[in-house]
Design goal:
It is built from eight helices and eleven strands. The chain is of the alpha/beta class. The longest helix has 18 residues, at 158-175.
Length: 324
């Protein structure tokens, strides 16, 4: 059964157990639910000070995630990748990331016109938000966590995909001042939703991002996870595009076991219907968390009450265990 988000204080439940041309990045100016999460907000560790404390799954703050779902799907609503609503959403997410202490760059790219889930959409510019803590170094291993911010035209996009962006923001808050096993980059992708029927008619933002990576960045990328539809269900779907051959998927499932979070496979295998596929088709390691089917998919009914806070926590705890 889908639980509904309660945004009043004290009502949130958490777990106890548990090829386009390469664009140039532009610097922006700017399992059981029982008790509420109470992890404190970290502060980024300044360079030259004592080592940052370690990251643990229990530090995930569900309040940060549910606030993001409410704002993106409840206040902004439908946000196709080239729309004014998308630009408002991107500006808000960028403000959240910079507020948590991350360095954010805007990567602009063009998206063609098309038909998105039965509705014509116009061509235009969209943007990825690329955030890091200043510790990603050329040639050194690094990890990437991504989530798409856009929606189809008719959907407020709570589950698809405010839920993924919400978990990414809660990860950003927790990891800003804590150590991870290797440096981490967060990318909020634009224009993921389809504008046609072929494999090249969606995932525009992640394809633009992959095209911008240098050969050295590609060789040193240790793994990428796309958070896409991660707020429905009682187990977290974990899936890849290369079944049986994906070490990143194996490491993600191992992290879920450490975090005591149940996982399941995806309804479609191999799974190529999220931004991880842009990485895999370029020969890079990419997997997906999320994809539980739900009745409100790509419809006006995809509102914040569809999203279960406990599932956001499950997903967030897997990711923190994977990054730690």
């Amino acid at each position: 059964m889908i639980r509904r988000i309660a945004f009043a204080a004290g009502s949130l439940l958490v777990l106890t157990g548990c090829g386009e041309a390469s664009p140039t990045p532009e610097t922006s100016p700017t399992t059981t639910a029982t008790a509420p999460a109470t992890a404190s907000r970290p502060s980024p560790t300044p360079s030259g000070t004592q080592a940052a404390p370690p990251l643990t799954p229990e530090q995930f703050r569900v309040e940060t995630a549910t606030d993001a779902v409410r704002h993106l799907a409840g206040e902004i609503g439908p946000r196709p990748g080239t729309s004014p609503a998308y630009r408002r959403a991107a500006a808000w997410v960028e403000g959240q990331l910079t507020g948590f202490g991350w360095q954010v760059h805007r990567q602009r790219f063009q998206t063609p016109a098309g038909v998105s889930w039965g509705i014509p959409v116009s061509a235009g510019e969209s943007v990825n938000l690329v955030a890091d803590r200043g510790d990603v170094r050329p040639g050194q291993p690094w990890l990437l966590v991504g989530a798409h911010l856009d929606t189809v035209p008719q959907a407020p996009g709570a589950e698809d995909n405010a839920s993924g962006v919400a978990v990414l923001l809660a990860i950003a808050e927790t990891a800003a001042g804590r150590s991870t096993r290797v440096p981490v980059r967060l990318v909020v992708f634009g224009s993921e939703e389809p504008r046609g029927e072929t494999d090249d008619d969606h995932h525009y933002g992640s394809r633009a991002y992959v095209a911008s990576l240098t050969p050295l960045e590609r060789r040193s990328l240790a793994g990428m996870v796309s958070l896409d539809r991660v707020g429905v269900g009682e187990a977290v779907p974990a899936c890849g595009a290369r079944p049986g051959l994906d070490r990143t998927l194996a490491s993600l499932r191992a992290a879920a076991r450490r975090a005591k979070v149940p996982t399941t496979g995806c309804s479609r295998t191999p799974n190529r219907s999220s931004d991880h596929w842009s990485f895999v088709r370029a020969g890079l390691p990419g997997v997906r968390l999320g994809s539980t089917p739900y009745a409100a998919y790509h419809s006006p009914a995809d509102t914040p009450d569809v999203v279960d806070p406990a599932q956001l926590v499950r997903t967030g705890r897997i990711m923190l265990a994977w990054l730690a």
